[in-house]
Amino acid sequence: MGGGGGGDDDSNAQHTTNGRRVVAIDQGTTSTRCIAYRMSDDCCDVIPVKSAQLTHEQIHPKPGWVEHDPEEILERVAECYEDVAGETEQSLTTVGITNQRETIVAWDSETQKPLHNAIVWCDVRTAEIVSRFSEKEKQLVLEKTGMPISTYFSATKMRWLLENSKDVQQAAERGTLLFGTIDSWIVYKLGAPRRDGKCIHITDVTNASRYLLMNIKTLEWDDEMLDLFWDQERVVAEDRVERGESYGNRTFWCSKTTRDGYFGGSTRQLSWTPSARR
């Protein structure tokens, strides 16, 4: 998804008697775009009101390596959101997110700072990790996840980070390491905390299915897949899939208003402990 900054504004739509709004956040590989919609008068359709789009830097440390700055992505999302929703935020009912899928972010739950640049879906640095798996293991992954072991998916990128990033390794030892795709990173950082004060660490099943760690028949993180990608120290998937749950009545973007944020399904994301899961 490319493109530059700026936005489009339907001023007539802004002054409709039907004031309900929804905002869609499209966080793509090359840019972030937000579109505000209003409900039609018969509530049977949505009509675009305003859009904004900003690009972010493509980082190439080596040939075949592609990274994004997670903090820059947050800035772009916040800027685009403010552009399209700032003046009419009180009328917002829903904020939805679509995102580049397999791109993975590692961050610290205490500092809430990224531990490494996000590794993008098209990055091929994990080719050597992929080559370690036997044909039997590859077949097992395919049967359980519906995906082949590939540099494309998130689990190999997570393993690379655990093997190659000192910051990620140290966070794992402290038990403060969190992994998530871009949707999780956005909600964790820009969404309001839960009632217990902790940030929301979630994804939906469509993103979870791109890790190589979710069983597509049960829609749960799969123990065999977790064991396959990590040996002695293991990733912890604390909660299972909760289908059709609405994460509503929460303040987004640190504003004073609330709106309903719905995900097609939700899965607790992956955190790390240096001990076994059981």
Please sum up the structure shown.
Helices cover 27% and strands 29% of the residues. It has 278 residues and is an alpha+beta fold.
Features:
278 residues, alpha+beta, Nucleotidyltransferase, domain 5, five-stranded mixed beta sheet, four-stranded antiparallel beta sheet, 27% helix, 29% strand, globular, disordered N terminus
Mind explaining what this structure looks like?
This protein has 278 residues and is an alpha+beta fold. It has a single domain (7-273), classed as Nucleotidyltransferase, domain 5. It is 27% helix and 29% strand. It is built from nine helices and 18 strands. The protein has helices at residues 11-14, 70-85, 127-131, 135-145, 154-164, 166-174, 182-190, 205-208, 223-229, and strands at residues 7-9, 21-27, 31-39, 46-55, 67-68, 92-99, 104-108, 118-119, 177-181, 202-203, 214-215, 220-221, 234-237, 242-243, 246-251, 258-262, 265-268, 270-273. The strands form six sheets. It has a five-stranded mixed sheet. A four-stranded antiparallel sheet has the order 7-9-18-13. Strands 10-17-14 form a three-stranded antiparallel sheet. Strand 2 (21-27) and strand 3 form a beta hairpin. Helix 2 crosses helix 7 and helix 5 packs across helix 6 (166-174). The N and C termini lie far apart (42 Å).
CATH architecture: 2-Layer Sandwich
Summarize the biggest pleated sheet.
Answer: 5 strands, mixed
CATH superfamily: ATPase, nucleotide binding domain
Q: Count every beta strand, where a strand is a DSSP E run of 2 or more residues.
A: 18
How far do the termini sit from each other? 42 Å
Strand order of the largest sheet: 1-4-3-2-6
Count of alpha and pi helical runs: 9
Tell me, what's the shape?
A: globular
Q: CATH class, please? A: Alpha Beta
Structural class, by secondary structure, is alpha+beta
In N-to-C order, the SSE pattern is: EHEEEEHEEEHHHHEHEHEEHEEEEEE
Specify the helix fraction band: 25-40%
Contiguous low-pLDDT stretches (5 residues minimum) are: 1-6, 10-17, 232-266
Radius of gyration: 19 Å
State the CATH topology.
Nucleotidyltransferase, domain 5
Any idea how many domains? 1
Strand content: 25-35%
The residue-averaged pLDDT reads 79
